Amino acid sequence: MGVVSIDLTGLALGTHDVDWPDLAALQQPTWGDPVALAQTLSVLASYPPLVFAGEADQLRERMAQVAAGNAFTLQGGDCAETLSEVTGPNIRDRIKTILQMAVVLTYGAGMPIVKVGRMAGQFAKPRSQDTETRDGVTLPAYRGDMVNGFEFTPEARRHDPERLLRSYHASSATLNLVRGFTSGGFADLRSVHAWNRGFIKGPAQKRYEQMANEIDRAVRFLEASGVADAEEMRRVEFYSAHEALVLDYERPMVRRDHRTGLLYDTSAHLLWIGERTRDLDGAHLDFISRIHNPVAIKLGPGADRDTVLAIMDKVDPDRIPGRLSFITRMGAQRIRDVLPALLTSLGEEARRVSWICDPMHGNTFTSPGGFKTRRFEDVVEEVRGFFAAHAEAGTHPGGIHVELTGNDVTECVGGAGEINLADVGLRYETLCDPRLNHQQSLELAFLVAEMLER
Ligand code: PEP
Ligand code: MN
């Protein structure tokens, strides 16, 4: 962000002129009060866009480089953002973590890294059950702060449309800080050491310090030689993404680009559709096929060739470079069986999209203490299986999509910090899925950099 020159003339308000077809939409809130909802939707439609069409176009160009095998994308952030965790330190540490991982990947792989935050809109979650029962009391399940509250009370669990507006404002505040950090000098390549400050110093952070010393030397060499472009080193392109799940949030955020008349979802640069809402005749695929942002679809181990081709024909019939990515989340146990066959069966079509590995969602289990967790080793194994599958099929392993935090949590087991199953509850802060902590995120980046080097 911060690189596109933006023409502000003719910015349309919310697109009331779009006739959204009445299709089945899974995982939607039941708001109750239709009058309050209608008011909220029109307020949301009157708000300024959070991102610009030109920025989304630029990300599509970057993703075209990913699809072509010339770049790699790093997508990361919380499973679910929460309104109360939208704080300066949290956002800063997540950005620092992603910048650190990206620099490790760039340095190791010598390839441009397209950086995408799973943030500034990731406030809603699909759930496997509509309700939750505790001690004989049944209430609506927590669906993310965009819909209801986590607290187990009838009042908190009520679906409240006011939360759509609060999510917009929280996203706006988050993006404002992201833009400040990534264009205001904080992301300067001469600050690689500073990004590591304030974190606990484990083996991965130490390894990072050594690499940062090498980068410093290289930067000084380039500066002394007069070939360093100061402006290019000062800023970084950083894009936002979230799951397009709650259509009452996404639809009012759609705007018509005055340059072309095309529709863009201005809630984020990239939107994805989850494994649970990607049915071909459903409202989510219809929505995503109408907007011109770069988009992604999650694919679980059951996805077959015909389904993938049908998704491509619906969402990206013209096979626009950079338009469509598939985020596979097959599980460490299944990926080596399932993904090579799927890629091979797609033939040339597999080269027209980007392939991204989500090594998190196929590897979740419950600890003996009752916490949802994942093993770091399974995460790494799934990424290895992903690289092996693409090597076998002759396609490009285009990126990773991970749930992470800059905080020192104990939500995933394993890694150099040797978090074991009994420790998972110690600093378990996520309200939804377990995230890699800072150390595990850096460790993963070093391992993926080695896989990319080969
Ligand atoms: C997620 O990304 O948090 C998620 C719910 O993933 P999936 O749709 O792959 O289950
Ligand atoms: Mn998740």
At a glance:
InterPro entries: Aldolase_TIM, DAHP_synth_2. Phosphoenolpyruvate binds at residues 118, 275-276, 298, 329. This protein is α/β, with parallel strands linked by helices and 454 residues long.
Please tell me about this protein's structure.
It is built from 13 helices and 14 strands. By secondary structure, the chain is an alpha/beta fold. The strands form four sheets. An eight-stranded parallel barrel has the order 1-2-5-8-9-10-11-14, surrounded by five helices. A hairpin with a 5-residue loop joins strand 12 and strand 13. Helix 3 (88-109) crosses helix 5 (162-183). The radius of gyration is 21 Å and the shape is globular. The model is unreliable at 1-13 (pLDDT under 50). Manganese (II) ion is lined by residues 79, 361, 403, 432-433.
Structural key phrases:
single chain, about 450 residues, alpha/beta, 8-stranded parallel beta barrel, globular, binds phosphoenolpyruvate, binds manganese (II) ion
> Approximately what portion of the residues adopt beta-strand conformation?
5-15%
Summarize model confidence as the mean pLDDT. Answer: 94
Small molecules bound in the structure, each named once: phosphoenolpyruvate, manganese (II) ion
Trace the largest sheet across and list its strands: 1-2-5-8-9-10-11-14
Number of helices: 13
Structural class: alpha/beta
- Number of beta-strand segments: 14
The ordered string of helix (H) and strand (E) elements is HHEHEEEHHHHEHEEEHEHEHEEEHEH
Q: Name the shape in a single word.
A: globular
Secondary structure: helix percent:
25-40%
**Main beta sheet, described?**
8 strands, parallel, barrel
Ranges where pLDDT stays below 50 over 5 or more residues in a row are 1-13
Radius of gyration: 21 Å
Q: Span between N and C termini?
A: 31 Å
